[in-house]
Amino acid sequence: MAQKKVALACSVCGSRNYTVPASPNRKVRLEVKKYCKYCGKHTLHRETR
């Protein structure tokens, strides 16, 4: 059975660049600084559901 995944969306441009495994234990949405290839810099990426 495949694991469910959620996307990480860039807070600046809104593009969904990354996917991470969904965790039922996580109560707050994941926020990570990642590189956005569309913005060309490191920006805050938030978990989408």
Automatic annotation (TrEMBL):
Protein name as catalogued: Large ribosomal subunit protein bL33
Source species of the chain: Secundilactobacillus hailunensis
Repeat among keywords: no
GO CC field: ribosome
The family this protein is said to belong to: Belongs to the bacterial ribosomal protein bL33 family.
Entry keyword Ribosomal protein: yes
InterPro entries linked: Ribosomal_bL33 (IPR001705), Ribosomal_bL33_sf (IPR038584), Ribosomal_zn-bd (IPR011332)
This protein's UniProt keywords: Ribonucleoprotein, Ribosomal protein
NCBIfam families assigned to the protein according to its UniProt record, in alphabetical order: PRK00504.1 (NF001764), rpmG_bact (TIGR01023)
